[in-house]
Write a structure and sequence with these properties.
three-stranded antiparallel sheet, rod-shaped, 3 domains, single chain, 8 strands, alpha+beta, Beta-lactamase Inhibitory Protein, Chain:B, domain 1, Heat Shock Protein 90
């Protein structure tokens, strides 16, 4: 259970106030009491605003650090800077707002460094490094954490939606299966009833039949046609307009289908260049059952319609396979010789069109010369292609893209940090090693020597941050003092030399002294003073 928002603010402020008090208590940083109280008040304001105005809270948290040190590197407010940068990324602030906030902090620090004019290059490198590792990296971590939580929540929501869709699809599949079974019954029974009607019609016109028998045959023919219409209407209610027609059951070849229709009295003939009853794939050399069954279904439906709507008309079936592997079927009937049955709803042809186009083929049905033609072109070895990627794949792709973006951002920030650290170290080594005055050169300097005679013996640079507080005596009044290191060792405390020159026209060396490193005893300091004299 999460604590309420009104209770986390004071706890956060108390946690961020600990480094401020500890740094002063341990003597790591020396700041006036009023500056500490002002910094704590600013942190309290940032804590209050971090939920509604995270960018403003970050800028408030960076203000005490900039005030205490132009390079933003402080023990008192460094933790607060990182925390509010993390919250800036966690609250989902726009990337442009966050980058503008970082740029504003960098501009404020750069302006203060330019005003101080104390080793600006080193100070600016430290500022950029502190901003990168103390603000940009925490912001990226918060942003990554937020994106991970959002993606996880979206994943669970998507899983629930997929489960609901799965139940809907399962229910729809059951309904489709029922409709398919009904359609199979319609196709099978309808075709047989049509053949029964043909046989009854043949009996009706057969010579030598009694009038009562002719009347019975006519009634049988009308009953078969009426049963076919009723069956067609009932099944039509169960089907959708765009639902593909079910394939004919395997086991009966196209030649057998036409032969059975001809035996029932339908004047039908088959034209086909090949003699095989199956369709062979031109690319794989194997029998394509889907294409064969689709062609069988097209011919069966076309023969049923011809027997019903064009009784007595000559029917021609053309079945061929091109070199490209495409199977073509054409069923053409001429003018009906007897009175046609009632017009149907056309759902059978609609189902055929959907089934053929689902395989990537084409389907046409309409008047042809004095009769009617049904034609279909069916590619071999084709299956329906999904229109879009699955939701799971889209979610996985979005998650990978989010992780990739965060990874690229981390990599770019790490590369920039490596460049800044390398540049800061190189500048630190350069400034320290080029401000070394050896003890021998220091001893050779004589009081009263003019500055122009002393400059050739001095290093190229001076110390930008001299340890003035450790000097044994204050500088003489009216002098300009320069500070140098006594050794070129890096990252360790060393002795310093102070040379003070007269500000008058002569610029003579009036005083030189040794500033001992921290932690030396009074006895050693006394020996160094004697040695300096």
């Amino acid at each position: 259970m999460r604590p309420p928002a009104h209770s986390t603010g004071p706890l956060l402020w108390a946690a961020l106030a600990v480094p401020v008090a500890a740094a002063e208590r341990l003597g790591l940083e020396r700041t006036p009491l009023w500056a500490q109280l002002t910094g704590l008040a600013v942190l309290a304001a940032a804590t209050t605003l971090h939920r509604t105005w995270p960018a403003t809270a970050f800028l408030l948290a960076a203000a005490p650090g900039i005030a205490a040190s132009p390079s933003l590197f402080t023990l008192s407010y460094g933790c607060a800077l990182a925390v509010f940068a993390f919250l800036l990324g966690l609250r989902g602030t726009a990337t442009g707002v966050a980058l503008l906030s970082f740029a504003a902090v960098a501009a404020a620090g750069t302006a203060k460094i330019a005003v101080r004019q104390v080793d600006p290059a080193a100070e600016w490198l430290v500022l950029m490094g502190t901003l990168l590792f103390g603000a940009v990296f925490p912001w990226l971590i918060g942003r990554y954490w937020r994106q991970s939580r959002e993606l996880t929540a979206a994943g669970w929501a998507r899983a629930e939606q997929l489960e609901r869709e799965h139940r809907i699809i399962a229910d729809r599949a059951r309904l489709r299966e029922r409709a398919r079974i009904a359609q199979d019954m319609h196709d099978s029974l309808g075709h047989e009833l049509s053949l029964i009607a043909l046989r009854a019609g043949a009996l009706q016109v057969a010579p030598g039949m009694a009038e009562a028998h002719r009347t019975a045959a006519a009634e049988l023919r009308a009953a078969a046609s009426d049963a076919t219409d009723r069956l067609h209407g009932i099944v039509g209610l169960l089907r959708e307009d765009d639902e593909p027609a079910p394939l004919a059951p395997p086991g009966e070849s196209i030649a057998a289908l036409i032969e059975r229709a001809a035996d029932s009295g339908l004047p039908v003939s088959l034209r086909r260049p090949d003699t095989d009853a199956t369709v062979t794939s031109a690319t794989t050399g194997t029998t394509d059952a889907t294409t064969t069954r689709t062609a069988h279904r097209v011919i069966q439906e076309a023969l049923t319609n011809a027997a019903k709507h064009a009784p007595g008309a000559l029917v021609t079936v053309e079945h061929a396979q091109n070199e490209s592997g495409t199977t073509t079927v054409k069923v053409t009937n001429g003018r009906p010789r007897h009175r046609p049955g009632p017009a149907g709803g056309g759902t059978g042809l609609i189902g055929l069109r959907a089934g053929v186009t689902a395989l990537g083929g084409s389907f046409e049905a309409g008047p042809h010369e004095e009769g009617y033609r049904v034609s279909a072109s069916i590619p071999t070895g084709r299956t329906p292609t999904p229109d879009a990627a699955t939701p799971g794949a889209l979610f996985t792709s979005a998650r990978r893209l989010a992780h990739r973006r965060v990874g690229v951002a981390f990599g770019a920030a790490a590369a920039a940090g490596a460049v800044l650290i390398g540049g800061a170290f190189a500048w630190y080594a350069y400034t320290k090693t080029h401000a070394v005055l050896t003890p021998a050169a220091y001893t050779a300097l004589k009081l009263g020597t003019p500055l122009e005679e002393t400059v050739p013996r001095l290093p190229d640079r001076t110390i930008s941050d001299p340890p003035v507080d450790r000097a044994p005596t204050p500088p003489p009044p009216g002098t300009d003092c320069r500070y140098y290191r006594a050794s070129g060792e890096l990252f360790v405390s060393v002795d310093h030399f102070r040379l003070c020159f007269d500000k008058g026209a002569s610029h003579e060396l009036l005083e030189k002294s040794v500033i001992p490193r921290p932690g030396t005893t009074d006895q050693v300091q006394e020996q160094r003073r004697e040695w300096a004299r």
